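Re: duplicated header lines in exported structure tokens

Our pipeline writes sequence and tokens for each protein into one text file. With two proteins the header for the second block appears twice in some exports. Here is an export where it did not happen, for reference. First protein block:
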Amino acid sequence: MANTSVPKYQYPANLNVANFVSLKLSSTNYLLWETQVLSLIESQDLLGFVTGDTIPPYTKITDANNTNIIPNPDLAAWTRTDRLVKAWITATISEEALGVVVGLKTSHDVWSALQNAFSQGSQAREFELLLKLQEKKKDSTPLSTISRTSRLYVMG
């Protein structure tokens, strides 16, 4: 009988990231990039790796007889999947952003560093757009025009 068990850590290696993420992260498009990357990661049930909820297993465990301490085989599987998620992220960022994550070990570390480095600019930009929206409401510009202009502005 064949082993039909589901692996503890998925490893969708045949996935072409460029089919899912059309943007390279830069200082001006964090929110758009984040939306695309999270959609990819969530679609593969791997979000816990970037949020830190899927923690690495212990490096050592006891054998089936509880007599010897042995390397945990789940650690290699976890590490392989985490490196894949990290590669997806780093494949979708600009050289500028790559400088922020050089030397970081896990996908969670990379995600957190990018969030810290780029989300503040996006939030400031979002606030600026809201202010412009309020100004436009005062001069009675149609909302459809404001919405279209704002979307183009966000896209950079």
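Second protein block, exported in the same file:
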Amino acid sequence: LPVRRRERRMMRFKSAGQCQRFVSTHGQIANLFQLHRKHLNAADHRPLRALASATWREIALPIQA
């Protein structure tokens, strides 16, 4: 089943290389934001989400300039 999902995602890209570049970058970014909600209550989740957003801003702002 994961192979089928991967194939479906790859259809959106012009080449397998473009897909691979996106997936490798997206995985690192997604790990920053995907917190394990199962073990967190809302009060603990909010500061971690804010920290993830601040970290992303630090990374993304120099790229835009």
